[in-house]
Amino acid sequence: xxxxxxxxxxxxxxxxxDVTLDCVYETRDTTYYLFWYKQPPxxxxxxxxxxxxxxxxxxxxxxxxxxxxxxxxxxxxxxxASQVVDSAVYFCALSEPLLNFGNEKLTFGxxxxxxxxx
Amino acid sequence: EPEVTQTxxxxxxxxxxxxxxxxxxxxxxxxxxxYRQILGQKVExxxxxxxxxxxxxxxxFDDQFSVERPDGSNFTLKIRSTKxxxxxxxxxxxxxxxxxGGPYETQYFGPGTRxxxx
Lengths: 118, 118
Hints:
The complex is a heterodimer.
Chain A: E1 3-5, E2 10-14, E3 19-21, E4 24-26, E5 33-39, E6 46-52, E7 59-61, E8 64-69, E9 74-79, E10 88-97, E11 104-108, E12 112-117
Parallel strand pairs in A: 2-12
Antiparallel strand pairs in A: 1-4, 3-9, 5-6, 5-10, 7-8, 8-9, 10-11, 10-12
Chain B: E1 5-7, E2 10-13, E3 19-24, E4 31-37, E5 43-50, E6 53-57, E7 65-68, E8 75-79, E9 88-95, E10 108-109, E11 113-117
Parallel strand pairs in B: 2-11
Antiparallel strand pairs in B: 1-3, 3-8, 4-5, 4-9, 5-6, 7-8, 9-10, 9-11
């Protein structure tokens, strides 16, 4: 069965510090996708990134970067120069194909609550 | 930018009452989902819907739950007789078809409906 582990329940850092959120996954599939979603205090889920299992290149988008390492089944997320607006719960998720090919569900980790202290 | 919308944003109901949660997916999307998040916990898959039928459902999605796409734009989740443990945030998500009709395109989430059963 698919599993996503986010071992860090809560992290607090002072503004402008860098912070890394860890995500470790388990899957038997050879093709899969990994995602990060942000859940701000208002409650919605905001898509941040999607990465497929064949692309291990790191990705950078502004202050955000992602490190995908298939050898360790990890997909970590780093925020550089953190800002108060980054305060949120961050979820890592793994796609799992359903019996009806062409469809899938997401398996979410338990989330990491990130608090940026001004 | 197109987005998934959900109504109502909050719903309070008495145990045993029926509730209908409404979602308007992004217009060119063909796959639809419901997830739920009990307060402080992770997001869990409930059901996926494609071509006017359920593709897959989780163990949570028992006979009290049903989904429908009544008019080609709305996508609804009905809970027939609510229980206290149904209190949660319910998220609707949608995605467009993947390459060759396959999965793994990004699921975009609505802002959620917070359901409280008293």
